[in-house]
Amino acid sequence: MQIETIIQKYHILTGQCVDFVRDFYEQLRSVHVEQLERKWITITLLVIGLLVVIIVGDAFFHGVNPPSKVETIDSAKLHLSKEFAESNLGVQLDDKGEIMVRMVAGRYSFFPKHIAVPAETKITFRWVSMDVLHGVHIPMTNMSTMIVPGYVAEITTSFPKPGEYPVLCNEYCGLGHNHMWSNISVIAKEDWTFPATVPAEGIKP
Amino acid sequence: MNDAAERKLALSHLWVAFIAFIVACFMGEYQVLERSGLIPALDSPTVYFASVSTHGVLMGFVLTTFFIMGFGYYTASTSLKVPVWNNKLAWVGFWISLLGTLLAAIPLLTGNASVLYTFYLPMQAHVAFYLGATLLIVGSWIWCGIMWVMFKQWKQVHPKQPVPLAMFATTANALLWLWASAGVALEVLFQAIPLALGWIDTVDPGLARTLFAWTLHPIVYFWLIPAYIAFYVFVPKQAGGYLYSDEAARGAFIVLAVFALPIGFHHLYMDPEQAKGWKLLHGIGTLVVSIPTLVTGFTVIASLEIAGRLRGGKGLFGWIGSLPWSNPMVLAVILSLLMLILGGFGGVINASYAMNAMIHNTAWVPGHFHLIFAGTTVIMYFAIAYYLWPMLVQKPLFSNSLALIQLWTWFIGMGILTTPWHVLGLLGQPRRISSVVYNTLLTLAWKPYELAMIFGGLILLGSACLFIYNLAKTQLNPVSGVFTQRVEYAEAIHPVKELPEYLNDFTLWNRVIAVLMLISFGVPILQFFFMNTFGSPGWGY
Ligand code: HEM
Ligand SMILES: [Cu+2]
Ligand SMILES: [Cu+2]
């Protein structure tokens, strides 16, 4: 009894929806659209459709995605956390032998101030902020992410070319924003040995 | 119809907009000078960031909001041929917005709100800044309400008739803005103000950025729609022809209003607090919203071609030469479209997140939006002002040739300012830096581009002064006599006699927006209340 009324209601509802769509479509058909315009709109839709297919394909099949870990952390207690304690920052090898870099952003520098990593190797960066919003970008590379207090920004990349690169803060974080930077040495793969990290200068208060 | 009351209302809004504009242009030129390091005595991050914060607020919020309100009132009353509904209330809105502007100006100019126009929490400004911004928005909501009422009242009196295109688009913009401003309003009312007053100890910066992104995309369409209105309702007539398609115009405005809203996460591509699936969804929406712009480009160029051919232009491109290039509206639309095409390429790069990683938050970004916003959009604000001013003050324009020089110099100056700005971004220069102190060879390559920007800015500043001079002269001219010119709205080749309700009303679209917003922002906002998040205390700068 109960179920029957629900089913009946459901039927009426779908009926209404179908009517609505049909009605909408009919009305749209009645709108006058020039031949040439119709062609242009079709081309536009095809181009946009193609672009959508490309980005969706890249995301699903090639794993091309922006940094989006959605992992929270207490930015006020970083020094008490195990992972981002001073002694644990910089370049590390994880249990699978992959390179993991942990960095803290704070006004006005990135800590540790200098690190060395191998070229042409997969590297995972984990960035956290100890105060306000920052952004980090290594120019000419795609190592770029926002560092939002309260969240861990994780990004995986690799550097094709050895060299000395600056690491620049690219989100306004206070009057000293332009002083916020550090260095990274990308070393030819065969020359790099762990730990090649220059000892961290320590996190200034 | 005696429209003295409407003219006064529109003029007051437009003057506030343009005074904000000219003040901010001087700041802009100071900024390019300061950051280049050419004059060491100028170097001061304190002054620089007070200036950039004020420049951004004046250009992004004051110029635009007041221009849109003033233009909207005049469009509503001239296209519907009725007085502005509840003139007193409109003035209340004006004064609330102006009060808000002045209130925010105090901390901005004294360096107590150097948080930039995006005021990302947990960095904190003086509470007067947030209160002022809130009042500015509240005043604009009154404008939205008045547009809505006038739209509905006209429809009641003229059942089944198509609402004039100009009013239809203005109402679309009012609806867009009501939805768009809700995000930042929530952020300011529930996070920024309580934090600044000490009612709460911490805020979640991730939530704040999500709410701001809700506003940040549609707001640029709020700014852009007046330019599109001019494209559709003024340009064809001024060029001596007809609007190619009235229906396509309506469709474009609807898609703009609907799809500009649920796509703000393209501003959060690089953020850790939202998941990749949501970013992808918003990324697809971002591509969809480029459709109305492509349709607009087509319709405007087609309308121009009709005009060019009616004026005797022959051949594939001959019609371009026979357009009335000495008409400011026509010249402006051509220059505006050129900048839109260039900026559009940049926009596609920003929208694709693999490429976006290379330029995110670099100098490329201000380069891009000065081209699209200060270029494409603002040049149409100029054209609208040149067109309406004589009718608003009932005197002929002081000088048409000055107007043409002004539009050309704005275009050239914008090219010289923004091209090097884009290059700087590709060379890795971060945005929002007051001087270059990085100790790396990379910065050597930046110097010449920064110097070129000073030159571009100088041309723009001169152009801006010409604009204000021309308007002021027009108004102060002693010329008297009967002035009879009226606003002329373009006619379509096939004027619309009747329209389906979907193309003549927003009730359905309003619901569609509600559903899309729920889908694209529902979970991403709710997640902050279910995750184990950690708030941040407020910080100075
Ligand atoms: C005289 C012409 C202009 C010059 C020389 C100029 C220059 C600048 C400079 C140097 C910045 C700082 C960017 C940074 O630090 O990264 C800036 C910011 C800004 N400009 Fe302009 N500008 C001009 C006109 C305009 C116009 C007409 C508009 C819009 C209508 C505009 C909108 C903005 C906005 C919204 C910001 C804030 C950006 C931010 O906070 O990152 N500007 N401008
Ligand atoms: Cu910074
Ligand atoms: Cu956007």
From TrEMBL, chain A:
EC number from the UniProt entry: 1.9.3.1
Residues spanning the membrane: 40-61
Subcellular location: Cell envelope
Keyword ATP-binding attached: no
Domain Cytochrome oxidase subunit II copper A binding: 96-200
Cellular component terms (Gene Ontology): cell envelope; membrane
Cross-referenced InterPro entries: CcO_II-like_C, Copper_CuA, Cupredoxin, NosZ/Cyto_c_oxidase_sub2
GO molecular function: copper ion binding; cytochrome-c oxidase activity; oxidoreductase activity
Key word Membrane present: yes
A Pfam family annotated for this UniProt entry: COX2
Keywords in alphabetical order: Copper, Membrane, Metal-binding, Oxidoreductase, Transmembrane, Transmembrane helix
Name recorded for this polypeptide: Putative cytochrome c oxidase, subunit II (CbaB)
TrEMBL record, chain B:
Organism: Crenothrix polyspora
Cytochrome oxidase subunit I profile domain boundaries: 1-527
Entry's Gene Ontology BP terms: aerobic respiration
SUPFAM superfamilies per UniProt: Cytochrome c oxidase subunit I-like (SSF81442)
CDD domains: ba3-like_Oxidase_I
The organism's place on the tree of life at top rank: Bacteria
The protein's name in its UniProt record: Cytochrome c oxidase subunit 1
Gene Ontology, cellular component aspect: membrane
Gene Ontology MF terms: cytochrome-c oxidase activity; heme binding; oxidoreductase activity
Enzyme class: oxidoreductase
Transmembrane spans: 12-33, 53-76, 88-109, 129-151, 172-200, 212-235, 247-269, 281-308, 329-349, 369-389, 401-423, 451-472, 512-531
Keywords per UniProt: Electron transport, Membrane, Oxidoreductase, Respiratory chain, Transmembrane, Transmembrane helix, Transport
UniProt EC number: 1.9.3.1
UniProt-listed InterPro entries: Ba3-like_Oxidase_I, Cyt_c_oxase-like_su1_dom, Cyt_c_oxase-like_su1_sf, Cyt_C_Oxase_1
The keyword Oxidoreductase belongs to this UniProt entry's keyword annotation: yes
